[in-house]
Amino acid sequence: MSAQPSGKPSGEPSAPTEFEVLVIGAGISGVGAGVRLREAGIRDFLIIEAAEDFGGTWRANTYPGCQCDVPSRLYSYSFAPNPEWTRVYANQPEILAYVRQVADRHRLREHTRFGVRMTEAHWQPAQGRWLVRTTAGEFTARFLIAGAGPWNEPLTPEIPGLESFPGEVFHSARWNHDYDLSGKRVAVLGTGASAVQFVPAIAPRVDRLHLFQRTAQWVLPKLDHHIPKAERWAMRQLPGARAGLAAVEYRAMETLGRGFRKPGLMRGVQAVARAHLRATVRDRELRRKLTPDYTIGCKRILFSNYYYPALTRPNVEVHASAVRAVEGSTVVGADGSRAEVDAIILGTGFHILDMPLADHVHDGAGRTLADHWQGSPEAYLGTVTAGFPNAFLLLGPGLGTGHSSAFAILEAQLELVLGALRTARSSGSATIEVRAEVQAAFNKELQAALAGTVYNSGGCRSYYLDANGRNSFSWPWSTGQLRSRVGRFDSRDFTLTPSRARQESDV
Asked: Rounded mean pLDDT of 311-330?
C-alpha cells in the first residue's frame, strides 16, 4: 500500500501517485466518499478536484438567490446533522460552508489535491488497476469512484449568432459577479430551477428583463422561513426534536413522491400550483403564458414565492417562445418576437445524461462509457456498469427523484461501494464487476416501472429523457426502497476475480 497523500502541492516529486482508491470530484459526493472511506479504515485514497476547494455544484453556482429545494435538515449527511441551519431551505453560502466544515472535520484536505482535472481514465486488465491521467500527471488506483455528479458541466445551447453577440453572455452556473446588471437590458434564456431563483433577485435591478420561456413550468409556493435562534438552540440541545422534525419533513416529501408514481394523485398538487399562479398573477394573458400543458411532476417541480410576482413587474416581459437566433444585439424568438439587450444570461441547465465524464472513462478494450451507453446511460443500481471493474459512479443514472435529497441517494450508494470494497479485501479479489445479465435485468425492471410514472406519462419532454427518448434519469420507487435496494451489496450480483497471489496459494 502507498503512503497517504502528503498534502503538498501537486507536481512535487515526493507526492505519491499510487493509491488503493481514487475519487474524482470534491463536491458532496466526493466529500461523502472520503468520510466513509476514513470511517471504514481505508486511508490510502486520493480525491482530485479541478477547483481550488470543496463544494462542487455549491461552489460553482453562486448566482443571486441560489438556494436548495429540499428542506435543509434532509439536505445533509446523516453522519453530520447540522442544527445551525438558519432557513428551512438553506441558501448557497450556508450549504457550501456546511460541506467544507464536514470535509475539514474529517481531515479530507490531507487526502485531496485541488487544481487537478482528470483528463482520461483507463482500466488496465493486466495490472488490475485504473490509470488516471490528469493535468498534474498520472495516478494509478485499484478502485475508481467517480463523484463529478450530473450537475457539473453547464449546457450552452447552440443558437445561431450567440457567439457574436456584442454584449455580456454567461451561464447561471458561471455567474459573472464583475458585470453590473444595474440599468441593463437583459435576456434570460430558460425557466428552470436556477432561473426561478435568480430572476426575482435581478428583476428589480435591471432596466428591462426579457424572459424567453420555451416551456411553462409548474411552480409551488415554498414553505420557507428564517429559523429563529430559539429553535436552533432547541435543535442543538434536543437531538430528538431535530430528528422528529426531520422525520415529519421526510414524510411530507414522500407523500409528494407517491404522486410521481401514481399520476392521478398529482391532481391535488396541480390544483395548489394553479391556485398559486392565479393568486399571484392577475393578468390573464400572462397567466395563460405561464400555465403548463402537462401534468405536474413530468418536469422537475419548482418552488418559489417570488418568481411569479417578479414576472408581473412592469420592466419584465415573458416571451412564451424558444430562441431562434441572436442577430447582433437582438434576441429573436421562435415566435418572431424580438428583444434588444445588453446581456444574455443562460439558465439552460447542465449536461445531465450526456455527462462529459462518460467520454473520458475507458474499459480494458479502450471503449468509453459513452460508447457502451450509446446515448442511454445505465448502471446497476445507478452505481456500477458491466465492463468497468472496480469502478463506481455516484449519483449515476436511474437514481433521480422529484422529491428525495441527493444526500439520501448518495449515502445509499456509498453503502454499496463500501460493501464491495470490504468484500474485495476480505476475499482477496483483484477485481469486482457487476454481471452483465444482472445489470440488464435491473434496467428492464426499472424501465417497466417508469412507464406508469408521471415522469414518462405526464405529457412533456424533460431532461429525464436521454438522446434516445428513454428515461435514464429517474428512480420509479420510494426513497425507502432506494435505500434498501441500492444500499445493500450482494456478492451474487458480481463476478469476483481472485488476485494472482490468492490464485497461486490455492494451487
From this structure: 98
